[in-house]
């Protein structure tokens, strides 16, 4: 690490099975090939200890290579991957393939990537994978409250986490409460998309704080205790997005950002 190393946050959440997930992770959607190796390596070098990938991203091998070559002990990195619902009926085989590509013997979190036609059956396979030690925690992505309840009631096992599209522009206190009432952690993706980086209110807060709009958005997630997984292929931006441990947003700034979701 150099003197300009980012000041990363150390916040984690304890999930249903006891695993601790860092609130800040590195997303890898749409990053493939050598870019995925380089970007993941930059993230690990910058201090990220949470990596997010998926079967359909087509980059598990590259993420696994970067992790294996990083020198960072496996047990210090929280690894998430996801299974497409089209693989219902062969989900365990999909996970074993993911483990081979990632060069690990288990993942820390395995998600159903989006709802399908056999959510309950697939969720039963996820419970089986957890019980077999292939994943520490199991969860879902892009599920609404009714689907969360459907799989929970069918199996007696609630998802540990639900990963959904999330940003200040999408903030909904009711969604946050729906998850917390069920003991399900909330994780946001695509936080830096959809006009968030250019929004005048976010830009104003960033300029006043001497921070980037991306740092403000990441910090906003952390102060809500919502997992966030910014992504970039640019090493400087990867470091900058993580450099959010040295400041906080005021209650007034948080309220301003929350209000963007109702406009």
Description:
- Helix 4 (119-131) packs across helix 5 and helix 7 (200-209) packs across helix 8 (213-223).
- Strand 7 (135-141), helix 5 and strand 8 (161-165) form a beta-alpha-beta unit.
- The protein has helices at 33-46, 60-70, 91-102, 119-131, 145-155, 173-181, 200-209, 213-223, 235-242, 251-259, and strands at residues 12-14, 20-22, 26-27, 50-52, 78-83, 107-112, 135-141, 161-165, 185-189, 227-228.
- The mean pLDDT is 97.
- With 263 residues, the chain is of the alpha/beta class.
- It has one domain: TIM Barrel, CATH 3.20.20.100.
- The strands form two sheets. It has an eight-stranded parallel beta sheet. Strands 1-2 form a two-stranded antiparallel sheet.
Structural class by SSE content: alpha/beta
Main sheet strand line-up: 3-4-5-6-7-8-9-10
Strand residue content: 15-25%
Give a quick account of the main beta sheet: strands, pairing sense, barrel closure: 8 strands, parallel
> CATH first level: which class?
Alpha Beta
Shape: globular
Number of strands: 10
Report the CATH architecture: Alpha-Beta Barrel
Any idea what the CATH superfamily is called? NADP-dependent oxidoreductase domain
């Amino acid at each position: 690490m150099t003197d300009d190393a980012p000041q990363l946050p150390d916040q984690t959440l304890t999930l249903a099975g006891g695993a601790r997930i860092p609130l800040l992770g590195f997303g890898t959607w749409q990053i493939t090939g050598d870019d995925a190796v380089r970007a993941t390596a930059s993230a690990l070098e910058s201090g990220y200890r949470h990596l997010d990938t998926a079967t359909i991203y087509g980059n598990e091998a590259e993420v696994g290579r970067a992790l294996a070559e990083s020198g960072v002990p496996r047990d210090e990195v929280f690894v998430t991957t996801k299974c497409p619902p089209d693989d219902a009926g062969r989900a365990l085989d999909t996970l074993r393939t993911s483990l081979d590509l990632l060069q690990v013997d288990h993942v820390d979190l395995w998600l159903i990537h989006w709802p399908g036609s056999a959510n309950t059956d697939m969720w039963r396979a996820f419970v089986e994978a957890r019980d077999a030690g292939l994943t520490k925690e199991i969860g879902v992505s892009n599920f609404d409250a009714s689907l969360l309840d459907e799989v929970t009631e069918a199996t007696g096992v609630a998802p540990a986490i639900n990963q959904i599209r999330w940003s200040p522009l999408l903030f909904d206190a009711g969604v946050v409460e729906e998850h917390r009432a069920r003991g399900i952690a909330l994780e946001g993706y695509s936080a830096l998309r959809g006009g968030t980086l250019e929004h005048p209110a976010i830009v104003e807060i960033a300029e006043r704080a001497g921070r980037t709009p991306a740092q403000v958005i990441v910090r906003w997630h952390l102060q809500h205790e919502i997992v966030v997984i910014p992504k970039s292929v640019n090493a400087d931006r990867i470091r900058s997005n993580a450099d959010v441990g040295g400041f906080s947003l005021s209650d007034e700034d948080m309220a301003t950002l929350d209000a963007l979701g109702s406009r």
